[in-house]
Amino acid sequence: MAEERAKRFNELIKKELGRIIFEFLDDIKPGTLATITRVMTSANLFSANVMISVYPPSGAKAVINKLRRSIYQIQQALNKKLKVRPVPKIIFKFDTNPEEANEVELLLEKIKNEKRQF
Predict the structure, then answer these.
(1) Which pLDDT band, with edges at 50, 70 and 90, does 24 fall under?
(2) Where are the domains of the chain?
(3) Domain 2-117 is classified in which CATH homologous superfamily?
């Protein structure tokens, strides 16, 4: 039961933060896409790690820096949206999983092509 509640709470934070940070990232370089991939809230609900994926990866540093500089305003907006107390402290982190998954896919494809040659 508690696990299901935590999943729903994480999804709620992800959904609301997605709407909020869309406004804060409107002035980043055109062609850069930032996505919240997952939210992991601590058991005591005092903090939440928000994993951000950025495409192309070269723009990741600028996006994360912009989010960290705007954290106070983002946190305040989230506090107004959520009707829960305490609202977790947001910590933005860069998610490298999509790039790693792409590398694995490329390696698997390469192995598959090499097998066909034999």
Answers:
(1) confident
(2) 2-117
(3) K homology (KH) domain (3.30.300.20)
Which of 42, 43, 39, 40 lies closest to 17, judged by CA? 39
Cα separations in angstroms, 115 against 5, 104, 106, 109, 110: 46, 17, 14, 10, 9
**SS3 state of residue 34:** strand
Of 4, 7, 12, the C-alpha closest to 87 is 12
- The sign one gets for the Cα dihedral 58, 59, 60, 64 is positive
pLDDT per residue as tens digits for the range 35-68: 888 899 888 888 999 998 888 878 888 888 888 8
DSSP single-letter state for residue 59: G
- Whole-angstrom distance, CA of residue 101 vs CA of residue 95: 11
Q: What is the pTM of this model?
A: 0.73
- Comparing CA positions, the residue from 94, 100, 108, 87 lying closest to residue 42 is 87
Distance CA 41, CA 66 (A): 22
